[in-house]
């Protein structure tokens, strides 16, 4: 059952005289309890997607078109009051830096109780009990003591756990996690990822995990979307994308990882850099860096097309599939 | 060269196989005072005012060598002192105790002009390419300034040639000389930062997390560039990173740090094939694997203690599944293993690791 | 051959016209889209150009006793009954044409303001750079000096200093060198403003990796301060400079009003206001009010410009 349905979402950023397109008509769905990874490099538009879903875009960014249907309601058409009722309640967000979410001058308990009471009619004592339960759920040792501590008294990993507890406070349907472990150490990172995975599984919460780390995506998510220059260029089951990437960019991204080459030899790098929003090339945005680019790629933007279980936006993949179909027909 | 060799011979503890080492780090220590100034150090304790200065023990008694042509990687989590080691080797920070020798010459006590010859040999590449280039200077100025400074009396034409040549060698279009850093992307800036280090023709580059601020596809480009420089110019690297997949690819030898102390020093292949220290094992198991569906990492209990209040005994004992009373009391010393790696762990020394790891894992899961 | 062509393109790139880039730059763009900034700048430019062209456009020279006739004193401005057509802003108590005197006086006020700020800036930036970069004991000593200096009000220091010099050298000599004394005293009294701001910026910049990289490259501390840290600390310096020019003009006017600044023979805006103050109750209000309005407008537009510059150069707004 679909929880979130995004159709032709376009986000633009106002510049001095005109505007640049940061998200160019992206469409995707997230089912209830589904864990979806959004992978891409900085500037690909993955964080902007998260912000747009939460209706958190602030000037100069704005939604230029499209629909975001969350539980049947269009987020883009909500009144500020409806948005506030949705945020934190039905849809929660976890940021890279826990201090973005945590207020340094309030204790953990005050923040959790305040959040609860803003959305539910609860007494302070009831809210405190719920907060305690949630802190226990995310394996925070001595939760009673933590409620009266300030964020700066806790370590980074502990803070991120508390942020996850706050995100889960109102039993949301969808959690958007924007690089939730990038600022943490490797040994802590794995713990937090496990926790996030467990929380989503046991509470049937949908997860949209925004990250640049393919390893994390492969361990946590069921489905993956690869973004490049404000578009989804490949999307499908995480396993099939990691094991058999179709789009040349996805292939390049996976092949560029040091694990993919014998130690000491040259890594398989993708030449060049992602185009900036203001200087988007004609045709496929990846063509200047693509070894397989043809004249068609330089002229026409490839549409995101379904092939079996995956969706890919690439002329070359399309051509291959056409030939495959022809060969099958000939036989 | 001979001069340097004889000097090296006079240093204690540098004989034998270490005499060929390019960089020798011995018993290096660095503390940072938390309570700077007299007034801050006054505390009210038990009804009396006492003087008490707390210090961050960033690096504690570290010794290792870097040989010519190696790429030694220093790995560890934030707060383990790896950047402090880098800054001390690059003479940006004086050690509190211990010594650093380069080609047999002691460099940690040099100051001012006496450091210039060392600056020519040891260069540094920084983590954040957005902060490491002066935003008010053009790329051309950024590269010309050190070239001119270290080649006094050389004509402007020759300096321009040198800059052009360096720019080409790092794969940057020499026409970018007139651009400002903010006009370039992160990867391009890091290339410029590497080019800047190369303008003085160094033998040794200290790279402090040079790719962790970059995107995956760009990381590969920069790492390849550093490998190329190693081949072309015979550069020796001290590479600071937290990313173990990069270590496996790039490093010849690995130094694992935890809370400012060395856990394990080993050849890269040995370390990845057979990690010995419990911390190294946990670190390796925590790296997200691409093809592995179900992660099976060793969960460590607790979090890294602060380097202000170091635990007694082994720094890792608070999180170690094998810690016993000896670990809590006595700090382990590095012991050379049969395969040549150096491990500082009582459990490894006493041979009580293998079953311990298994039970520790089950406990945590 | 390829090297040669590369060299040429590098040279061309170096000398590319910067005018277009300047016009498109953020600061000019922000200026073009801010009416307050445009109006303030225009008003300031008009006042500055007119006053600096005083010898060309002023009908009379207030410094030339031959052109002053005491019989012309206290004529009202053109829109008041009993005015003379040749003095459209009226005349002062000594019979000087008020229009010419204001032009010359404004020029003097602006010059004193600018020069005093230059003195402040040179002192303050040097001390601030040293204090921030060297740190430790040097920093403590210099900053305590700044604190002590700031705990005396500018006017108090200036009054004591100017009264002493006036007594020491006599009014004759003092009158001759009044400009220099004023610049010196206003300049010295306010350097801590610069020193503190610069020190704070240097402390922030010093932590950035480009400074570390300059140190690893072996550059000496003077080069690092002058070539690397100072250019990156200019934004706050610009902001306080505008405010300080306005402050210095006010200080000068206040001192002159108190009779410790410019002598009546070399009128600045302050001494004009002061001179006219005696006549304000006898009906000749214009001698005080007109220079007063000029002073207020001048200080106001400089402060408005300063506000605007602060908004534009604010790194939080500017780089995001």
From TrEMBL, chain A:
One of its GO terms (molecular function) is ATP hydrolysis activity. It is found in: Cell inner membrane. GO terms for cellular component: plasma membrane. PROSITE patterns: ABC_TRANSPORTER_1, ABC_TRANSPORTER_2. Residues 4-254 form the ABC transporter domain. InterPro entries: AAA+_ATPase, ABC_Ni/Peptide_Import, ABC_transporter-like_ATP-bd, ABC_transporter-like_CS, Oligopep_ABC_C, P-loop_NTPase. CDD domains: ABC_NikE_OppD_transporters (cd03257). It comes from the Bacteria. Its main location: membrane. The keyword Transit peptide does not apply. GO terms for biological process: peptide transport; transmembrane transport. It is a peripheral membrane protein. Belongs to the ABC transporter superfamily. PANTHER family: DIPEPTIDE TRANSPORT ATP-BINDING PROTEIN DPPD, OLIGOPEPTIDE TRANSPORT ATP-BINDING PROTEIN APPD. This is ABC transporter ATP-binding protein. It comes from Sagittula salina.
From TrEMBL, chain B:
One of its GO terms (biological process) is peptide transport. It is found in: Cell inner membrane. Residues 44-284 form the ABC transporter domain. It holds the Pfam family oligo_HPY. Keywords: ATP-binding, Nucleotide-binding, Transport. Residues 1-17 have a biased composition (Polar residues). SMART domains: AAA (SM00382). PROSITE patterns: ABC_TRANSPORTER_1, ABC_TRANSPORTER_2. Its main location: membrane. InterPro entries: AAA+_ATPase, ABC_transp_ATP-bind, ABC_transporter-like_ATP-bd, ABC_transporter-like_CS, Oligopep_ABC_C, P-loop_NTPase. It is a peripheral membrane protein. GO terms for cellular component: plasma membrane. GO terms for molecular function: ATP binding; ATP hydrolysis activity. Residues 1-20 are annotated as: Disordered. PANTHER family: D,D-DIPEPTIDE TRANSPORT ATP-BINDING PROTEIN DDPF-RELATED (PTHR43776:SF7), TRANSPORT ATP-BINDING PROTEIN (PTHR43776). Belongs to the ABC transporter superfamily. This is ATP-binding cassette domain-containing protein. It comes from Sagittula salina.
TrEMBL record, chain C:
GO terms for cellular component: plasma membrane. Its main location: membrane. It is found in: Cell membrane. Keywords: Cell membrane, Membrane, Transmembrane, Transmembrane helix, Transport. The keyword Transport applies. Residues 106-306 form the ABC transmembrane type-1 domain. It comes from the Bacteria. GO terms for biological process: transmembrane transport. The keyword Cell membrane applies. The chain crosses the membrane at residues 36-58, 108-136, 148-168, 174-191, 237-263, 283-306. It is a multi-pass membrane protein. InterPro entries: BP-dependent_transpt_permease, MetI-like, MetI-like_sf, OppC_N. Belongs to the binding-protein-dependent transport system permease family. This is ABC transporter permease. It comes from Sagittula salina. The lineage of its organism: Bacteria, Pseudomonadati, Pseudomonadota, Alphaproteobacteria, Rhodobacterales.
């Amino acid at each position: 059952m679909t929880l979130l349905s995004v159709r032709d979402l376009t986000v633009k950023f106002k510049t001095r005289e005109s505007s640049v397109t940061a998200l160019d008509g992206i469409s995707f769905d997230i089912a209830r309890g589904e864990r979806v990874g959004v992978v891409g490099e900085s500037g690909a538009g993955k964080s902007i997607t998260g912000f747009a879903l939460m209706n958190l875009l602030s000037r100069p960014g704005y939604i230029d078109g499209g629909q975001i249907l969350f539980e049947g309601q269009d987020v883009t058409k909500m009144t500020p009051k409806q948005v506030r009722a949705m945020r934190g309640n039905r849809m929660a967000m976890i940021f890279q830096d826990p201090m973005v979410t945590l207020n340094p001058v309030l204790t953990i308990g005050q923040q959790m109780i305040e959040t609860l009471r803003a959305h539910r009619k609860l007494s302070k004592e009831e809210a405190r009990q719920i907060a305690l339960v949630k802190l226990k759920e995310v394996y925070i040792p001595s939760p009673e003591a933590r409620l009266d501590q300030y964020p700066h008294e806790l370590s980074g990993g502990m803070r991120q756990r508390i942020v996850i507890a706050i995100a889960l406070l109102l039993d949301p349907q969808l959690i958007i996690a924007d690089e939730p472990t990038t600022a943490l150490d490797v040994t802590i990172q794995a713990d937090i990822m496990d926790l996030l995975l467990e929380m989503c599984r046991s509470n049937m919460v949908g997860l949209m995990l925004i990250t640049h780390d393919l390893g994390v995506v492969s361990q946590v998510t069921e489905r993956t979307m690869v973004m490049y220059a404000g578009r989804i260029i490949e999307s499908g089951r995480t396993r099939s994308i990691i094991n058999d990437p179709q789009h040349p960019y996805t292939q390049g991204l996976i092949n560029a990882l040091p694990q993919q080459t014998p130690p000491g030899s040259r890594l398989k790098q993708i030449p060049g850099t992602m185009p900036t929003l203001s200087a988007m090339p004609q045709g496929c945005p990846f063509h200047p860096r693509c070894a397989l680019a043809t004249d068609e790629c330089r002229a026409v933007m490839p549409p995101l097309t379904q092939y079996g279980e995956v969706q890919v936006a690439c002329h070359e993949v399309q051509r291959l599939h056409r030939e495959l179909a022809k060969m099958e027909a000939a036989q | 060269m001979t001069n340097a060799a004889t000097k090296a011979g006079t240093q204690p503890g540098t004989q034998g196989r270490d005499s060929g080492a390019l960089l020798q780090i011995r018993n290096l220590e660095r503390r940072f005072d938390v309570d700077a100034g007299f007034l801050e150090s006054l505390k009210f304790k038990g009804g009396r005012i006492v003087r008490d200065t707390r210090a961050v023990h960033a690096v504690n008694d570290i010794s290792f060598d870097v040989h010519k042509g190696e790429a030694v990687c220093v790995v560890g989590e934030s707060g383990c002192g790896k950047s402090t080691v880098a800054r001390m080797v690059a003479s940006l920070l004086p050690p509190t105790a211990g010594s650093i020798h380069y080609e047999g010459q002691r460099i940690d006590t040099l100051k001012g002009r006496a450091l210039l010859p060392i600056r020519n040999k040891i260069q540094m590449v920084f983590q954040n390419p957005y902060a490491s280039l002066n935003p008010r200077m053009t790329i051309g100025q950024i590269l010309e300034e050190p070239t001119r400074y270290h080649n006094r009396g050389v004509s402007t034409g020759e300096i321009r040639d040198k800059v052009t040549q360096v720019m080409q060698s790092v794969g940057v279009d020499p026409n970018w000389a007139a651009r400002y850093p903010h006009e370039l992307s992160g990867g391009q800036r890091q290339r410029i930062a590497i080019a800047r280090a190369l303008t003085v023709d160094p033998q040794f580059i200290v790279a402090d997390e040079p790719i962790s601020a970059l995107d995956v596809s760009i990381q590969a480009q920069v790492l390849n560039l550093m490998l190329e420089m190693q081949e072309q110019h015979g550069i020796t690297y001290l590479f600071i990173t937290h990313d173990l997949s990069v270590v496996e690819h790039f490093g010849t030898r690995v130094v694992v740090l935890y809370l400012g102390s060395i856990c394990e020093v080993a050849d890269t292949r040995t370390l990845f094939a057979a990690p010995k220290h419990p911390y190294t094992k946990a670190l390796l198991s925590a790296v997200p694997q691409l093809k592995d569906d179900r992660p099976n990492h060793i969960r460590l209990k607790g979090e890294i203690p602060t380097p202000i209040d170091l635990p007694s005994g082994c720094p890792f004992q608070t999180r170690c599944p094998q810690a016993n009373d000896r670990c809590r009391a006595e700090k382990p010393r590095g012991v050379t293993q049969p395969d040549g790696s150096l491990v500082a762990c009582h459990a490894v020394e006493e041979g009580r690791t293998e079953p311990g790891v298994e039970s520790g894992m089950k406990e945590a899961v | 051959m390829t090297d040669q062509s590369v060299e040429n393109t590098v040279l061309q790139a170096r000398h590319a016209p910067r005018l277009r880039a300047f016009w498109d730059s953020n600061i000019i763009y922000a200026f073009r889209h801010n009416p307050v900034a445009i109006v303030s700048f225009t008003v300031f430019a008009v006042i500055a150009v007119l006053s600096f062209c005083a010898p060309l456009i002023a009908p009379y020279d207030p410094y030339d006793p031959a052109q002053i006739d005491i019989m012309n004193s206290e004529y009202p401005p053109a829109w008041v009954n009993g005015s003379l057509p040749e003095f459209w802003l009226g005349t002062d108590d000594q019979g000087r044409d008020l229009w010419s005197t204001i032009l010359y006086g404004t020029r003097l006020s602006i010059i004193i303001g600018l020069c005093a700020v230059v003195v402040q800036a040179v002192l303050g930036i040097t001390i601030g750079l040293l204090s921030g970069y060297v740190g430790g004991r040097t920093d403590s000593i210099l900053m305590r000096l700044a604190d002590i200096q700031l705990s005396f009000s500018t006017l108090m220091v200036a009054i004591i200093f100017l009264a002493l010099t006036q007594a020491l050298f006599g009014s004759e000599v003092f009158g001759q060198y009044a400009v220099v004394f004023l610049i010196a005293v206003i300049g010295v009294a306010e350097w801590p403003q610069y020193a503190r701001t610069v020190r704070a910026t240097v402390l922030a910049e010093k932590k950035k990796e480009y400074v570390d990289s300059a140190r690893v490259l072996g550059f000496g501390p003077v080069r690092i301060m002058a070539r690397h840290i100072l250019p990156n600390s200019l934004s706050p310096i610009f902001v306080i400079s505008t405010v300080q020019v306005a402050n210095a003009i006010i200080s000068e006017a206040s001192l002159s009003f108190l009779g410790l600044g410019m002598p009546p023979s070399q009128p600045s805006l302050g001494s004009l206001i002061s001179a006219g103050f005696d006549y304000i109750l006898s009906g000749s209000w214009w001698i005080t009010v007109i220079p007063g309005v000029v002073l207020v407008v001048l200080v106001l537009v400089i402060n408005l410009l300063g506000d605007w510059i602060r908004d534009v150069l604010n790194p939080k707004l500017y780089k995001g």
